[in-house]
């Protein structure tokens, strides 16, 4: 996947591995933050109409 903007943030959910991966794409590098499901105690999505949304993971 080609990133549209420098510093794009991509979230991937690997159900079989029980893992959420955040990738920050900065040409030509990719930084990853991996979180196991067992480390997550809460997830909340805030999506106001006609505005950018927020995903909170605790």
Automatic annotation (TrEMBL):
InterPro entries, per database record: TRF2_HOY1_PH
Domain TRF2/HOY1 PH-like stretches: 3-58
One Pfam family per UniProt: PH_TRF2_HOY1
Stated name of the protein: TRF2/HOY1 PH-like domain-containing protein
Species this chain originates from: Olea europaea subsp. europaea
């Amino acid at each position: 996947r080609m990133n549209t903007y420098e510093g794009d943030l991509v979230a991937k959910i690997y159900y079989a591995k029980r893992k959420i991966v955040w990738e920050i794409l900065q040409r030509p590098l990719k930084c990853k933050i991996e979180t196991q499901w067992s480390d997550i105690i809460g997830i909340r999505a805030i999506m106001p109409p006609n505005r950018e949304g927020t995903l909170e993971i605790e």
